[in-house]
Specification:
Elements lengths: L2 H6 L55 E7 L6 H11 L6 E8 L5 H8 L6 E6 L5 H11 L4 E4 L11 H9 L7 E8 L6 H18 L11 E4 H5 L11 H7 L3 E7 L13 H20 L11
Helix pairs in contact: 6-9
């Protein structure tokens, strides 16, 4: 096999970056076995920005993939995984993908122990902490379904709301034009300072980006895998999925969802560190809006 040719045949680096065949999804670890030919040479494509060793096995496709990035949530992952399983029990087939983003508190071990109880559970681990957006992207890339649901790993999003989002994404005559359905937290169970900071931030964002998003911090979303992977990736993209979907010509929908207080662990964000990153992100996303000529259909003649 020609490794360079194989990489080239995997398609556009934003969408089809997974090996074909019956292999399971495996992230290459430090001590993974190499894939070698008769000469002893590693025939597998080298790990790059576009290929990280995770394979998507389409022969095992499912109807819905629920993606949950977590870091240091050892007390939350068990109850949350069980709630998600109950919420998608009505689906013909579903998988639940937890991405352990470099936890140091036993989160990965707790998830692995759950796999006996929940056969649909998959666990992918980052070697070190890369952030929520990268966790989402890792899960979406490994997902076996074309329909993705994301939610936060702290238990504040209610998995019981998942069917509401899926109904909007799938139903109706214009369903195929919808790129994302985003939850809007009806009654936020956060501190007063966090709610005020969010209100100010959302106001500035609405003025600058005009994307109609009233609650950019809600992690509960349903979207099409292909649409997400077509978006320009950057860290913190999870807060701008709505804006970038609109940029690509997709429709967006919003639905009110439940919000619950955090019962275990601590938030990984503060108002201050969110402010620091959001300034650059806002102007960067505004630049992306301006530097795009719009969606068009293309056909081979």
């Amino acid at each position: 096999m020609d490794p360079v040719g194989h990489w080239r045949n995997m398609g556009h680096p934003g969408t089809s970056l997974f090996l074909e065949g019956a292999g399971l999804y495996k992230a290459r670890g430090r001590h993974s076995h190499m894939h070698t030919n008769s000469t002893g040479r590693d025939d597998r494509p080298a790990a790059t920005l576009f290929y990280d060793g995770i394979e998507r096995n389409l022969s095992m496709a499912v109807g819905i993939s629920v993606v949950v990035p977590v870091k240091d949530e050892v007390q939350n992952v068990g109850p949350l995984a069980r709630e998600i399983a109950a919420a998608v029990a009505g689906e013909p087939s579903a998988e639940i993908i937890f991405i352990d983003d470099g936890s140091s508190d036993g989160t990965a071990a707790a998830l692995i122990a759950l796999k006996q109880e929940l056969p649909s559970l998959r666990v992918i681990q980052h070697a070190h902490n890369l952030g929520q957006s990268r966790g989402i992207r890792t899960g979406v890339r490994a997902a076996r379904s074309d329909i993705i649901v994301t939610l936060d790993g702290d238990g504040q999003n209610d998995p019981a709301d998942i069917p509401k989002l899926l109904e909007l994404l799938r139903g109706g005559p214009d369903a195929q034009s919808i790129g994302v359905v985003s939850g809007v937290r009806a009654k936020r169970k956060d501190t007063l300072s966090r709610r005020l900071a969010s209100r100010i931030g959302n106001g500035i964002r609405a003025w600058l980006l005009s994307d109609g998003a009233a609650d950019t911090g809600c992690g509960l979303k349903a979207f099409r895998r292909e649409a997400f992977l077509a978006l320009p990736y950057f860290d913190h993209i999870h807060r701008y999925i709505i804006t970038l979907m609109i940029r690509e010509g997709y429709d967006v929908r919003f639905v009110e969802v439940n919000h619950r207080p955090r019962t275990h662990g601590a938030s990984k964000y503060t108002n201050f560190n969110r402010l620091l990153v959001s300034v650059n992100d806002l102007f960067g996303v505004r630049w992306l809006q301006r530097r795009f000529r719009g969606k068009t259909e293309a056909k081979e003649l």
